Task: structure prediction
Amino acid sequence: MDFLRPASWEEALAAKAEHPTAVPIAGGTDVMVEINFDHRRPEYLLDLNRIELLRAWEVGEETVRLGASVSYTQIMENLRAELPGLALASHTVASPQIRNRGGVGGNLGTASPAGDAHPALLAAGAEVEVESVRGSRLIPIDAFYTGVKRNAMAPDELIKTVHIKKADGPQQYSKVGTRNAMVIAVCAFGLALHPETRTVRTGIGSAAPTPVRAKAAEEFLNAALDEGGFWESGRIITPSIAKQFAELASASCNPIDDVRGTAKYRRHAVGIMARRTLGWTWEQYRGTGRSLEGAA
Amino acid sequence: MRVNFTVNGRKQEADDVWEGESLLYVLRERMGLPGSKNACEQGECGSCTVRLDGVPVCSCLVAAGQVEGREVVTVEGLADYAKHREDAHPGGGCASGACGTSIDAAQRWQAKPVDGQTGEAGALSPIQQAFIDAGAVQCGFCTPGLLVAADELLERNASPSDQDIREALSGNLCRCTGYEKILDAVRLAAARQEEAV
Result:
């Protein structure tokens, strides 16, 4: 095994171009587990810890440009107002020790359906900026996840920045696990209200081969909220609408039975989380509930 | 490969490090510092918690090569680290070559509480003393990780709520399930810290 320690982003891209099989390591919270357990013996480890630009973020007019290695702790502490859904999701990641090391870039690189950041990114709307010596490109989050632990990146590419839409309305995140800390999601659900476009976006974690949006549920809800004039009136969402939204969200899942839970339970729980997160965000939107920054 | 880094305030060098090796392995097997415990090797249990550039991390998930040029504080250096925080460098740690704990001293380090007969104080940090006083040490395996995590909590939050303590220690498992005493110990250390101010 070789340990590559590029000092700059350009060096990192050159190293990845020369050794496309090199495994990037940042927080190490996925990669080191595999190495410790002898599940993986990469020929090259590509350490990204020295690259400062990956640890920086920038709040722009419309988006937050989040460096791939910005830790979950930093997101929780600094980006709560701009990225409430992702901040809530970050708070559910493992433990303080893990949140101090891990970041969204690693979640995306690993592309596990159970990654905590994914539902929040899907709900907020995001683009992943990947780069290689050939150039850079933006991959829409909806096109990023291509299979179980697979993503749309080429072997010579590295994740540089995640461009996440700044919240224009309330966002919520819900995760099911056996305790509050140190759990891999049994399933998870992210929901974002976008009052500017009068749309609702969602993200489902750990209930399909990839993180997915509950598109049919979103379409139904967007139409129902529009027809009922809910965005203007700020009325409480009719229980029948919330119920149908939950059922459609549940139907968007394609889960499996595994050690953490059954497919049946996951479908059920996703429906419940969809209804609850809709209720929470809508209360916030109506101005009667908790603040935009979430409460976890 | 060779790794140069700072351990407990002193510059150290580890040789013949395998590229896939963890910081935990380097500390235990190459530096002779077995205070950080090796248990789950997947970041679940927190018994290998150390400070990396001041931040609590699971040393089993840090690749050895990633600590090149960086600063690590282990439980063996915790008493000294806490002392420096109070005396020489209030409000922060210390990384200059003159301070810190030598590797020999760290290897020989033992928890010696205040002697009941002579009243002589051992080299314990306030959090270590509080763990002993509160009976928060049972089998002791999780203790080093908990001490490092709890010390960092009290460094950044002088009067933590129970919720804050639970949150800060949520990544440290105790298989004796002695959590209540552990919470007592952190509360005790926090109270003593407040009294001292």
